[in-house]
Design goal:
Layout (H helix, E strand, L loop, with lengths): L5 H11 L8 H4 L4 H10 L14 H14 L6 E7 L4 H10 L23 E7 L2 H6 L7 E9 L11 H15 L8 E3 L6 H14 L9 E4 L2 H4 L6 H15 L1 E2 L19 E3 L4 E2 L12 E8 L3 E8 L14 E8 L2 H14 L8 H17 L7 E8 L4 H14 L7 E5 L22 H6 L1 H16 L4
Parallel strand pairs: 4-5, 4-9, 5-7
Antiparallel strand pairs: 1-2, 3-10, 6-8, 9-10, 11-12, 12-13
Helix pairs in contact: 7-8, 11-13
């Protein structure tokens, strides 16, 4: 018997684990087949292709989709970006380029920025011409006003960012959109977290935004502080963030960027680094200008893209509830009926078989929603339970039973009332007690009625500012 050397045995074991060559092996090596498979499986007969503009790839794809729609070559386009390749070779490439963060945190435009962090992501958008989307009664998150494009041309290095090329893309976008850059309330920057890249990008932005009359008006941030740099999917991540910001009328915060990079001198510019979410109140000084956002993506090789987005509706028309807090509302003619409803709710949120975190959260949300549907403010017995993710439901229900049966005062997340309801509910801020920054922020950002009141107050203050 011939002995196989140990080294060859190991090599044979490794080779035997490889996937065998088959009819899909060759197409699997071709990048364009990603789009081709989608078109094949969903029977889509329009243009299908993959765009490669490095880290600007998904905005390059968005640009192509917008042009197809404008040319009436299609009535609906599915576009976006996919990047799930973060193997050791990819990390080595970025490490050798010297752009990875040594602290493993992306801090765009921050004084503590020390590089980027790689992420993986898939983001897809459905695009239609606005008239068609309205006719089809689609949910419209935002309107794309324009996509500006430019190349760096000849520069010092193929991977070095260039402010002139980026500025050309910005100018192209705002010229196409016929929009004054000073009307932009949010810039979703490329913002990788590298000191050099952020400085070049900020230089290009400053050259397009007039700070003389609009100092510190436009929020600037980057979703990369939350999900890392998803490379080919980075642009679409920024588009999704900006579209949701316009839809919910909320300016999202950029994480880990509390203090701006002093070299940028942001406080002397048209921008401010927004590090926490807040209600997006329109600037009444500019009249009835809709909320607008700009989104940038730049790629190696000098590929520069900037999209201008605008809100579809000026008024907030929906509750922006993220589900992290649920309200269970009970009402009845007497305490006995109230405790029966409470027991039925408890049985509904304590399933017989174990459920994972996501399932039990959805079950509680559904049951809480059902209680709110049947709530009657005219019933003399009323109970509210504020449920948060980490609450012990069993203990909370026991406390609620004791509260109703003993008629004790409301406490903690339980609110109990007995007797006929009189008048209407009002929110008062008397100016005394515990005052703190951002008080009421979540209320304004979540509920349309609160946002309307805040916008009205903004207009009133602007009208009487000189009095």
């Amino acid at each position: 018997m011939t002995r196989i050397p140990p080294g060859e045995q190991i090599l044979h074991t490794i080779q035997s684990s490889y996937a065998q060559w088959q009819e899909n092996s060759f197409p699997g090596l071709l990048g364009n087949v990603v789009a081709g498979r989608i078109a094949n499986r969903f029977n889509l007969s329009g243009t299908n292709h993959v765009s490669d503009a490095a880290c600007a790839s998904s905005l390059s794809a968005l640009h192509s989709a917008v042009m197809e729609l404008c040319a009436h070559k299609c009535d609906m386009s599915i576009t976006g970006g996919v990047d799930c390749l973060n193997d050791i070779f990819m990390h080595m490439c970025f490490a050798k380029t010297g752009v990875l963060s040594h602290t493993s945190d992306a801090r765009p435009f921050s004084k503590d920025a020390d590089g980027t962090v790689l992420g993986e992501g898939i983001g897809m958008l459905v695009l239609k011409r606005l008239a068609d989307a309205k006719k089809d009664k689609d949910r419209i998150y935002a309107v794309i006003k324009a996509v500006g494009t430019a190349s760096d041309g000849k520069t010092s290095a193929i991977y070095a960012p260039d402010a002139r090329g980026q500025r050309r893309a910005l100018q192209d976008a705002y010229k196409q959109a016929d929009v004054d850059p000073t009307s932009i309330g949010l810039i979703e920057a490329h913002g990788t977290g590298t000191r050099v890249g952020d400085k070049v990008e900020f230089s290009a932005l400053k050259s397009c935004f007039d700070a003389q009359h609009h100092k510190n008006k436009t929020a600037i941030g980057s979703v990369k502080s939350m999900i890392g740099h998803t490379k080919a999917a980075a642009g679409v991540a920024g588009i999704i963030k900006a579209a949701l910001a316009l839809h919910h009328k909320v300016i999202p915060g950029t994480l880990k960027a509390d203090i701006p990079d002093p070299d940028l001198d942001i406080n002397a510019s048209a921008f401010y680094l927004n590090n926490r979410s807040k209600p997006w109140v329109p600037d009444v000084r500019q009249g009835n200008v809709p909320r607008r956002a700009g989104v940038s993506a730049f790629g190696f090789g000098g590929s520069n893209y900037h999209a201008v987005l605008e809100e579809y509706e000026g008024q907030k028309s929906h509750v922006s509830w993220d589900g992290s807090v649920q309200i269970a509302a009970f009402s009845a003619h007497d305490t006995h009926s109230l405790t029966k409803k409470l027991a039925a709710f408890h049985a509904g949120v304590t399933p017989e078989h174990p459920m994972d975190g996501g399932e039990i959260t959805r079950l509680i949300a559904w049951q809480a929603g059902e209680t709110r549907k049947s709530f009657c403010p005219d019933h003399p017995e009323r109970l509210l339970m504020v449920l948060q993710k980490d609450n012990d439901i069993d203990a909370l229900v026991d406390q609620a039973h004791a509260l109703v049966e003993n008629g004790g005062p409301s406490k903690g997340p339980l609110f109990y009332g007995s007797g006929s309801a009189q008048g209407k509910l009002g929110f008062l801020f008397p100016g005394q007690g515990s005052q703190y920054p951002d008080m009421g922020k979540d209320l304004f950002a979540t509920f349309p009625e609160a946002m309307d009141a805040l916008c009205l107050a903004e207009k009133m203050f602007a009208t009487h500012a000189g009095d």
